[in-house]
UniProtKB/TrEMBL annotation:
<dbReference type="GO" id="GO:0003954">
    <property type="term" value="F:NADH dehydrogenase activity"/>
</dbReference>
<comment type="function">
    <text>NDH-1 shuttles electrons from NADH, via FMN and iron-sulfur (Fe-S) centers, to quinones in the respiratory chain. The immediate electron acceptor for the enzyme in this species is believed to be ubiquinone. Couples the redox reaction to proton translocation (for every two electrons transferred, four hydrogen ions are translocated across the cytoplasmic membrane), and thus conserves the redox energy in a proton gradient. This subunit may bind ubiquinone.</text>
</comment>
<keyword id="KW-1003">Cell membrane</keyword>
<comment type="subunit">
    <text>NDH-1 is composed of 14 different subunits. Subunits NuoA, H, J, K, L, M, N constitute the membrane sector of the complex.</text>
</comment>
<feature type="transmembrane region" description="Helical">
    <location>
        <begin position="371"/>
        <end position="390"/>
    </location>
</feature>
<keyword id="KW-0830">Ubiquinone</keyword>
<feature type="transmembrane region" description="Helical">
    <location>
        <begin position="337"/>
        <end position="359"/>
    </location>
</feature>
<feature type="transmembrane region" description="Helical">
    <location>
        <begin position="304"/>
        <end position="325"/>
    </location>
</feature>
<keyword id="KW-0560">Oxidoreductase</keyword>
<keyword id="KW-0812">Transmembrane</keyword>
<dbReference type="GO" id="GO:0009060">
    <property type="term" value="P:aerobic respiration"/>
</dbReference>
<feature type="transmembrane region" description="Helical">
    <location>
        <begin position="271"/>
        <end position="292"/>
    </location>
</feature>
<keyword id="KW-1278">Translocase</keyword>
<dbReference type="InterPro" id="IPR001694">
    <property type="entry name" value="NADH_UbQ_OxRdtase_su1/FPO"/>
</dbReference>
<dbReference type="GO" id="GO:0016655">
    <property type="term" value="F:oxidoreductase activity, acting on NAD(P)H, quinone or similar compound as acceptor"/>
</dbReference>
<comment type="similarity">
    <text>Belongs to the complex I subunit 1 family.</text>
</comment>
<keyword id="KW-1133">Transmembrane helix</keyword>
Length: 452
């Protein structure tokens, strides 16, 4: 068997029953992933906060998510009277269905034998497979926007508008973070990108030959770092969960959805999207289903069904990172979110793409190109750190100036005759009821005598 994995020519040959079996297996795997993901997130955050978390339903509370799902399915489904019912009911499906479809091009492993048929552990692949994932992510935001619009609630509409602006800005940065990977691998096919990361190279530095990892997370680290940030903006997770914003928008786009099956579909879509972006990160930057070192020393590590285990383990670690960030970082302000996406992520990404494209066009050897990539990454990250430092200093100066202006206004409010205009304090009972007369008076004595 080919340890590098299948190619595009290996797809499209499966019988219909096998394609249907693959689709059902992916669907069941994602549903089980949602159940265990919700339980795992609650358990991890609870332990980080010195709590037990779910511990009643089943051993270690492992059946809690299943009990919650049954409860959501059986609860009464309340629909507000003034909503657009067709769009209101359709919106949750528009979020959940594209999240499942995006997994159709994710490679789980190499070619294996299923009931005597040699087939790749992947539902299908396309010459532009990664673009299909971006397309599904773009369609998913329609569910959020339509859920907010159809609810006829100001909080829901604001949440939907926030989500549309957030996805537009962060999806541009996400797509740009893929460009360097496409240049490096020479393809947009997910299976071939994984195959391109199968063989490690080497670089000669000061006369010493040093092996270089094949995973793009090393040679294309700036692309990976930007993609990690955009993952949170794409999935509306903390610290970028502004479309929900419980502290200011009640529940955001799903405020008018009762805790029923439709609300549960929003949660299913959110968690499946988390698995999707995690699987894309593993596919593009962490070698896909290839075994990590030192497991890769084993000859059979990348054959048979073992690669599926390595792939699911990498996705689980990426999901754990989502949970860790949620438990560690606070929500950012909306203006900070948008400014960071447009003023930082996109310009830095464009600069990095320029470096990667230049190295590719100069036809520099793979090993020397890796060294240049690493040096370029250090320069870009250093420039960003310096900019962030100066930006923080400028922000502190602006905050200090705003505090000074506020103090001056406070002093003006405390002095009734400040600026030569005799306006009495509004909170004194002696002057209540005569404020309109005071506005036309130019003498404080007239105000006093008028009140008497």
């Amino acid at each position: 068997m080919n340890n590098a994995g299948p190619t595009l020519s290996d797809f499209g040959n499966d019988p219909l029953w096998l394609s249907f079996l693959k689709a059902v297996c992916i669907f069941v795997l994602l549903l089980l992933g949602v159940l265990f993901g919700v339980w795992g997130e609650r358990k991890i955050i609870a332990r980080m906060q010195h709590r037990y978390g779910p511990n009643r339903a089943g051993k270690f509370g492992i059946l809690q998510s299943l009990a919650d799902g049954i409860k959501l399915a059986l609860k009464e489904d309340l629909v507000p009277r003034k909503v657009d019912k067709v769009v209101y009911i359709l919106a949750p499906a528009l979020i959940a269905i594209p999240a499942f479809l995006a997994f159709s091009v994710i490679p789980f492993g190499p070619t294996v034998s299923i009931f005597g048929v040699e087939t790749p552990l992947q539902l299908t692949d396309l010459p532009v497979g990664v673009l299909l994932v971006l397309a599904m992510a773009s369609i998913g935001v329609y569910g959020i926007v339509l859920a907010g619009w159809s609810s006829r609630s100001p909080y829901a509409i604001l949440g939907g508008l926030r989500s549309s602006a957030q996805v537009v800005s962060y999806e541009i940065a996400m797509a740009l973070s893929f460009v360097a990977v496409f240049l490096q691998a020479g393809t947009l096919s997910t299976s071939e990108i994984v195959a391109a990361q199968a063989h490690a190279g080497s670089v000669t530095l000061f006369g010493v030959e040093i092996p270089t990892p094949s995973w793009y997370v090393v040679s294309l680290f700036p692309s990976f770092a930007i993609y990690v940030i955009t993952m949170f903006g794409e999935t509306n997770r903390l610290p970028f969960d502004l479309p929900e914003g419980e502290g200011e928008l009640v529940g955001g786009f799903h405020t008018e959805y009762s805790s029923s099956l439709k609300w549960g579909m929003f949660m299913i879509g959110e968690y499946v999207n988390m698995f999707t972006v995690s699987a894309i990160a593993v596919t593009l930057f962490f070698g896909g289903w290839h075994a990590p070192w030192p497991i890769s020393i084993w000859d059979a590590a990348n054959t048979g069904w073992w690669p599926m285990l390595w792939f699911l383990g990498k996705v689980a670690l990426a999901f754990w990172f989502f949970v860790w960030v949620r438990a560690s970082l606070p929500r950012v302000r909306y203006d900070q979110l948008m400014a960071f996406g447009w003023k930082v992520l996109i310009p830095v990404n464009l600069a990095w793409i320029l470096i990667a494209a230049t190295m590719k066009a100069m036809r520099i050897s793979e090993g020397d190109r890796t060294v240049i990539y690493v040096l370029g990454a250090v320069i870009i990250i250093g420039a960003f750190a310096i900019w962030l430092r100066f930006d923080t200093v400028n922000q502190r100066r602006a905050e200090a100036k705003a505090a000074q202006i506020e103090e001056e206004f406070k002093q003006l409010r405390e002095e009734p005759a400040a600026g030569g205009f005799p306006v009495p304090p509004l909170d004194l009972p002696h002057y209540r009821g005569v404020v309109p007369a005071a506005r036309h008076s130019t003498d404080a004595k007239e105000v006093t005598s008028g009140s008497n």
